[in-house]
Design brief:
Elements: H1 10-14, H2 16-23, E1 27-32, E2 38-42, H3 43-59, E3 67-71, H4 76-87, E4 91-95, H5 101-111, E5 115-118, H6 123-129, E6 138-141, E7 152-154, H7 155-161, E8 176-182, E9 190-195, H8 199-208, E10 217-220, H9 227-239, E11 243-247, H10 253-262, E12 267-270, H11 272-280, E13 296-300, H12 306-315, E14 320-324, E15 334-335, E16 349-350, E17 356-359, E18 372-377, E19 386-387, H13 391-396, E20 398-399, E21 402-411, E22 417-422, E23 427-429, E24 432-434, H14 436-444, E25 449-459, E26 463-472, H15 480-493, E27 502-505, H16 519-527
Parallel strand pairs: 1-11, 3-4, 3-5, 4-8, 5-6, 6-7, 10-11, 10-12, 12-13, 13-14, 26-27
Antiparallel strand pairs: 1-2, 8-9, 9-19, 14-15, 15-16, 17-18, 18-21, 20-21, 21-22, 23-24, 25-26
Helix pairs in contact: 2-3, 3-4, 8-9
The structure holds adenosine monophosphate.
The site of adenosine monophosphate has 19 residues, from strand 14, strand 21 and strand 22.
């Protein structure tokens, strides 16, 4: 990808620039709905619809640096509104469609979002919290025909009235672009802000790591609520004029393999939990498929266990390349990739210009084969620029020119990095980072719950599962009904992914003398391990 005339605008590069390069009639994405209807959108269509959406926002009074969120399941409107907002230099945040009321309120409130694009089915969640969001002026709904009020507007009505005559202003590389919220182990989720410059690295890695060229058909299964879904489900491939498959349905082994075969997918990017689910199916299910067009499979989000790589070699005849990155890095940093030996179980090696380091808690650089904090020398092109409204959290993660990722790892003598875990209590379940604090807070809202402590425990399928320790108020007793009530509550307030897989009733939740929940102790108890130093536990 070339930056032409200093135009860094992601929306422009992913659509208009591809048309200018002669790819206007090429399919930018084939949309396959959950009930298998197929619609092709060319780069001309992507450019036209995103420009029209930019015009819609402009007419509604959106301007530079205003924030718009999408709160949608996978849908064509997701792509038009994302690129349209970026064309107008409006910052676009993407939200998982399974978020509950608290999760939405935290994010929309912190960002002071001016607008949100959503579906009728999710409207209730937003209207329930709307009066706590004074900045939220417009709710644009993709599946209503008419405007409901002056604030709840029909996407199609707005779009049919808008002209598509819009050209993105010349956008400087450090202009804010994409916003993703990420969960920490304490406090509210943090808004990771990126800038248009990130496209340099997303495009580079789509080419150098994912090996994409204009001839490819690429399928990235990630939801657009997650950084993978924007960096590699939108920006990287379209910056290179690559045709993508976007599928609106969920996991289904047979359907996925039908899709890989029928759509002649050449490069596939997925995640370990999904791959492990495929691995658990009866091997006969995969007989008779012709996946000869498939060149590469990549994985991201959680540790990729070697068994999955072995399975893919046997069933598909392909390697799976593990890649490592996170919301803050904006793009792939450490990776196995075509042309290099795969060291199964390792995240791979680094890319030229990216400088990881293993550093101990005293700030000393560690040599090979020593476990420590995985850090990155600051300054790579897709590095986040701040946590929105939380510069101190950003500053606390950068020391001596290194960004502390929150992961721990080891580098071996050949330069391969091995993931060891998190240095905080954040839970990674099926690739989703869950804050134990958010789940604990949701649990405490249940009338029967007096105390709660939440940990991530190893799980064969999900990598980690959410386990909640709950102490009930004296007058209540545990029952199946209460369990259902608690689960439903966490799902409605936080998200369905954050709902505890296991709830354990305890007499008390261990806390230190300043009242901090000792998750380390809970985890050790759960795993039957030594509880370590418990001298600071409250009496
Ligand atoms: P997120 O910011 O939600 O994309 O989550 C990023 C985190 O997911 C990383 O900091 C890791 O803890 C984990 N992660 C991502 N990719 C990998 C990988 N290939 N191996 C192990 N953990 C990973």
């Amino acid at each position: 990808m070339n930056i032409i005339n200093n135009q860094y605008n992601i929306g422009h590069i992913c659509s208009r620039q591809q048309c200018d390069n002669g790819l206007g009639d090429k399919v930018a994405f084939r949309w396959i709905s959950a009930n298998a209807e197929r619609t092709d959108y060319t780069f001309f269509a992507l450019d036209r619809e995103s420009s029209r959406f930019a015009k819609v926002l402009q007419t509604l009074g959106f301007a530079d640096s205003d924030i718009l969120f999408t709160f949608l399941p996978k849908a064509p409107e997701q792509f038009f509104s994302f690129l349209g907002a970026l064309k107008l230099q409006v910052v676009c945040g993407t939200l998982f469609s399974n978020f509950g009321d608290d999760a939405l309120l935290d994010r929309l409130g912190d960002a002071k979002a001016k607008g949100i694009v959503t579906k009728k089915g999710f409207l209730k969640k937003i209207t329930r919290i709307k009066d706590q969001l004074p900045s939220l002026k417009y709710i644009i709904v993709t599946d209503i025909e008419e405007h409901q009020t002056t604030e709840i507007l029909s996407y199609s009505r707005l779009m049919c009235k808008a002209s598509d005559d819009f050209t993105a202003p010349l956008t400087a590389p450090d202009t804010p672009s994409v916003l993703h919220y990420t969960s920490g182990s304490t406090g509210k989720p943090k808004g990771v802000l990126h800038v248009h410059r990130s496209i340099l690295h997303q495009s580079r890695t789509a080419s150098e790591v994912l090996n994409l060229t204009e001839k490819d058909i690429f399928w990235c299964t990630a939801d657009q609520g997650w950084v993978t879904g924007t960096s590699y489900g939108i920006i990287g491939p379209w910056s290179l004029g690559v045709t993508q498959i976007h599928y609106g349905g969920g996991y289904d082994a047979r359907l996925w393999f039908d899709l890989l075969q029928k759509e002649e997918v050449t490069v596939w990017y997925s995640a370990p939990t999904a791959l492990r689910m495929l691995m658990r199916e009866d091997a006969d299910l995969y007989k008779g498929y012709d996946l000869s067009k498939l060149r590469h499979i990549f994985s991201v989000g959680e540790p990729l266990n070697p068994e999955v790589i072995t399975w893919a070699r046997a069933i598909v005849g392909k390697d799976i390349y593990d890649t490592w990155f996170q919301t803050e890095t904006g793009g792939i940093m450490i990776t196995n990739r075509p042309g290099l030996e795969i060291r199964a179980g390792s995240m791979g090696t680094t890319l030229a210009g990216i400088e990881p380091a293993i550093i101990d808690d005293n700030g000393e650089l560690l040599g090979n084969n020593h476990q420590g904090n995985l850090c990155l020398k600051i300054g790579w092109p897709s590095m986040f620029v701040t946590y929105l409204n939380n510069k101190s959290a950003y500053d606390s993660k950068i020391k001596n020119g290194y960004y502390y990722t929150g992961d721990t790892a080891v580098r071996d003598d050949d330069g391969f990095y091995w993931f060891k875990g998190r240095s905080d209590d954040v839970i990674n379940t099926a690739g989703h980072l869950i804050s134990p604090f958010e789940v604990e807070s949701a649990l405490l809202e249940v009338e029967e719950v007096a105390e709660s402590g939440v940990i991530g425990a190893p799980d064969e399928l999900l990598y980690e599962k959410v386990v909640a320790f709950v102490h009930l108020h004296k007058q209540f007793t545990w029952s199946k009904e209460l369990e259902v009530k608690i689960r439903l509550h966490v799902s409605n307030r936080a998200s369905s992914i954050a709902t505890p897989q296991e709830i354990i009733i305890v007499e008390s939740v261990p806390k230190n003398k300043s009242g901090k929940i000792m998750r380390r102790v809970l985890k050790a108890r759960y795993l039957g391990l030594d509880e370590g130093d418990i001298s600071t536990l409250e009496d």
